[in-house]
Prior knowledge:
Elements: H1 20-46, H2 51-63
Amino acid sequence: MKKLHLPIWHRSNGEIVSCTEKVKVMRENIEELQQAIQDAYEDALFMDVDSAQIKSFLITMIENLENPYKDNNV
């Protein structure tokens, strides 16, 4: 699995997230998520699910994420 180059994270107001601990948590979360998605994708392929279909569904899952902090401007 190709390791992704992580971006510089920005706050909703455009400022850079500079807290070392926050950046570390983001990196760890992204790495764990990438591995979980890769595992789910490989399982789907092993079960003969169409590659394009599972990728499309995974993208749909991401697009449907809801911001629980939307009303709090977080």
